[in-house]
Amino acid sequence: MATIQIEVSAELAERLQRYQHELPRIIEQGLHELERGNTVQQPSNHSDAETLQRVYEALRAAGAVGPTPEERRRHLAEHDDWAPLVISEQPLSEMIIEERKSHSWDDGS
Questions:
Q1: In angstroms, what CA-CA distances link 24 with 18, 38, 104?
Q2: Statement: the pTM of the whole predicted model exceeds 0.90
Q3: Cβ neighbourhood burial of 16 (10 Å; 0-12, 13-18, 19+)
Q4: Tens digit of pLDDT for each residue in 7-43?
Q5: Sign of the C-alpha dihedral, residues 87, 93, 98, 99?
Q6: Is the pLDDT of residue 107 over 60?
Q7: What is the CA angle 21-22-28, rounded to 5?
Q8: Which runs of consecutive H residues, i.e. helices, occur in 37-68?
């Protein structure tokens, strides 16, 4: 049997400690699954933040997520000339109540 050394984070080392006697089997099974599924990831020089940004941009391009809060703020600042529509002097809630009362299914109570 050969001995290898790997460098892992303190958190991962703590998690692995309880499985220390099973590590060869765990690594072999994991490697088998990766090779079988051809999902071996190539090493990346990107930081986690860069990876998250790339994932976000891909999701955004696919329409799965909307604009960021900063983009919303920028859009609202650029379009600050909007004004609410005034339909009548009466509040909309009162208009809805009057409309409902005008229908025959309402007994007026």
A1: 13, 21, 77
A2: no
A3: middle
A4: 888 888 888 888 888 888 888 888 777 777 755 455 5
A5: positive
A6: no
A7: 140
A8: 48-61
